[in-house]
What we know:
Blueprint: H1 2-14, E1 23-25, E2 39-41, H2 54-77, H3 81-84, H4 94-114
Parallel strand pairs: 1-2
Amino acid sequence: xxxxxxxxxxxxxxxxxxxxxxxxxxxxxxxxxxxxxxxxxxxxxxxxxxxxxxxxxxxxxxxxxxxxxxxxxxxxxxxxxxxxxxxxxxxxxxxxxxxxxxxxxxxxxxxxxxx
Length: 115
């Protein structure tokens, strides 16, 4: 949970650019983060003392089924401990390179599993 707050603060400060006409599936830790030109999807919370409608429940199920795939991908990248541990290398762009390598290793594992 603490990491989500840190990531949200970084996103608010740096304002990354996104391709046009894409959707961002976010969890409840990113409430209030609405980048321009992007459609965001977030599960709806149950109102206090009320229930969600069947349509809202179905929409939450759909969003959750997409989010679980994303969470599994993130967990696959975190198998490389350098991604989840504190990264102390301060040279320019090394943190991005480490993430790219972790993503490539995850994709390689997935490709080898399917072959």
